[in-house]
Amino acid sequence: VFRRSYDRIYIESGQFEYKPLKNTEKCNLGNIFQDEILKTLGLENRKKGRDTIIANTEVDVKWTSSSSDLRPTAWRIPPECFHSICLLASSSDYFASWNLGIIRCDPKILKGENRDKKKYFNPLGKKSIIWIAENQKMPENRFLGLAYPSCRCSAA
User: Fold this and answer.
1) Positive or negative CA dihedral for 9, 13, 18, 24?
2) Residue 91: beta bridge partners?
3) SS3 sequence of the chain
4) Fewer CB within 10 Å: N-end or C-end of the chain?
């Protein structure tokens, strides 16, 4: 799922790795991951409300990139997800690793706020994540580390 998500955004963007992606492309990677994980798990990708339903519970899917092979905590939680269950995913194409966890996004475990009113996990929130899978390996990006000029390729 993670490798497929990266490869889809690379094909769409004409890039070979994560760093040169535009911010909009990085944001779209989260949407691509959501599509891929729900399809793989055979879950409905809902258009209204939370992203899917698992065991009769509405669940929102959140993805973030990892800059290391450690567990990340940089998910941005929008107000509509406060009090909701979130399936948290992260991955690093550079370390070929991924993590998957679940949490109820109680406002007491959130802090800060960006201009979209999205919040981040405070220390208690970071400790409250129930990790389903940690630092798992995914297939490597074979283009990483190759000497090639930075370019945007035509998808034609």
Assistant:
1) negative
2) 65, 98
3) CHHHHHHHHHHHHCCCCCCCCCHHHHHHHHHHHHHHHHHHHCCCCCCCCCCEEECCEEEEEEEEECCCCCCCCCCCECHHHCCCEEEEEEEECCCCEEEEEEEECCHHHEECCCCCCCEEECHHHHHHCEEEEEEEECCCCCCCCCCCCCCCCCCC
4) C
Average pLDDT over the chain reads 88
CA–CA gap between residue 39 and residue 155 (Å, rounded): 24
User: What domains can you pick out in the chain, each with its CATH number?
Assistant: 2-137 (3.40.600.10)
Length of the chain: 156
What pTM does this model have?
Answer: 0.86
